[in-house]
Amino acid sequence: MQTEHSNNAQPKAVVTPFHHPATGTWSYIVQDSSSKAAAIIDPVMDFEFRAGRTYTDYADELLAFIRKEQLDVKWILETHAHADHLSAAPYLQEHLGAPVAIGRGITAVQERFKELFNLPDAFRTDGSQFDHLFDDGDTFAIGALPGRVIATPGHTSDSNSFLIGDALFVGDSLFAPRFGTARCDFPGGDAGVLFDSIQKLYQLPEDTRVFLCHDYPPEDKEPIYQTTIGEQKRDNIHVKADTRREDFVAMRKQRDDSLPMPELIIPSVQVNINTGKPMPAEDNGTSYIKVPLNIFRGDPERMARDSS
Question: Which is nearest to 63 in space by CA: 24, 98, 35?
Fold first, then answer.
């Protein structure tokens, strides 16, 4: 299959990035330049883990921009059920009325984590908590902007990328070229599958704009949110255009074995498989986050540093 080299045929999306420093996350508002139609991608809910409190400061920034620009939000899109931040999708939906959508692979994620967290029988694993489940190749529209779903599992089994006009939103599958690619050691992750998914993205025109979900820059650098397919193929430290699958899998396994779990994985996954909503309140009127003991890999060295 030949790679196209020009993306000029695709209409240009207007993309506004929003950075959440506490989690290193980029959220986006993407809009059609010929109308007020827009979509929100990967919104974040502020969360103070030590106090068990959520805040809406960051989500309110998105709302303020939407109201200022008088945008008509058609979709709230999740690239996957994130393990490093809580989703603000329900809060934004409450204010905007737009449907919340994710990939159909969320059902497998729900099944795995329902068992791991021993969630109540009433928690359904059919994805029905979301308004829409996307399959690979599905299309949608934001005004005159065409949207296409590209399933990109590997980091998680529900990972999707969204090609909206000339803009590609890749979730965690690709990071900035200097940082590489997503980890694959979560339940349902698979480095070989991620490599195959990235090859699908590398077939897109080289001038396709790539919008990242995260960047973790060195201290002397600012976080970046945008690259191109061509830049990724040339410069990504983990997977260039000529990287062999077996080399990528070996690298990813070695690297993943050295990584600590994300700080917010336990609360994030529990609420994000439920669209970002906490589990139903118990008989005292309070919702809880469950912490399974001795399930996830720990990091004793970090624990020692944090307590010193």
Answer: 98
* DSSP structure string for 114-183: HHHHT--TTS-SSSTTSSEEEPTT-EEEETTEEEEEEE--SSSTT-EEEEETTEEE-TTSB--TTT-B--
- Judged by phi (left if over 0) then psi (alpha if -120 to 50, else beta), residue 193 lies in alpha
Cut 0.90: pTM above it: yes
* Pair type for strands 14-20 and 145-151: unpaired
**Amino acid of residue 183:** R
Residue 59 has pLDDT above 80, yes or no: yes
Cβ contact 142:31 at 8 Å: yes
- pLDDT band (50, 70, 90) for residue 216: confident
Residues 6+ apart with CB under 8 A from 108: 157, 158, 188
Query: Cα separations (Å) of 29 from 79, 113, 138, 146, 258?
Result: 14, 29, 20, 15, 34
Residues 27 and 44 sit within 8 Å (Cβ to Cβ): yes
Architecture of domain 14-307: 4-Layer Sandwich (3.60)
Query: What ranges do the domains of the chain cover?
Result: 14-307
Kindly report the number of other CB atoms within 10 A of residue 287's CB atom. Answer: 13
Banded pLDDT at 4 (limits 50, 70, 90): very low
